[in-house]
Fold:
Amino acid sequence: MFFESRIFPTIAEMSEAALDAILRIVNDAVSKRNRFSIALSGGHTPAKLYALWAEKYKTQTPWDRVHLFFGDERFVPEDDLLSNYRMARQTLVDHVPIPKENVHPMLTNFPSPEKAAKAYEVELRKFFGEGPPALDVQLLGLGVEGHTASLFPGSPALDEKQRWVVAVTAPAEPPQRLTLTPVVLNEGLNTFFLVAGEDKREILTALRSEPQDVQSKYPAGRIRPARGVVWYLDQAAAG
Ligand code: 6PG
Structure:
């Protein structure tokens, strides 16, 4: 599988490089369309990038034109330690002057994950209208078994053709999650996988060694937006 990858000695340098690329896209999107949209990923890896954004690029970012979405969320209260929204608030959102209405978390204060997923799809359609949900940037992580967002191996969500957001049961803690589907993720204008740590080396090698012309065995390999993807790796993950 072809990989455009950019490798850096440390997660800090990887995060800085990815953030520089994001800020270039922010400026381009805002000058062309007067707004910028990004889907944040969860887990641990992106926390460094979010913190850097708040520390280093707070004043250079036109926050009134920036819209933060999420690629997935755990179906837990927003102040739960496992909440991706909580992590993004702690590292980025609470430290920058972004208008509240520009932050679009996957809300989980619904009676069921299915209702929460439907509500988020309404939120996305409000922003994208009937056009394709083409986010300017999609940040994605990689699980050791090849999941990305909350699309796990064997999940029916991988074959979703209509819905933009679905509720899934993941083989991970917590199991109930919400995730963007490939319907959205394959529309992204710029898709950056952020992968760090030696524990990701094996799955990266497996992804890289897949033939180009067959469907990937791994959810991360199924994200094939027309504009391609860029893999930001630290040396520990890249090997
Ligand atoms: C989540 C993420 C998930 C994450 C990978 C990698 O909600 O957990 O969206 O897809 O990106 O599991 O997580 P780490 O960065 O913690 O390794």
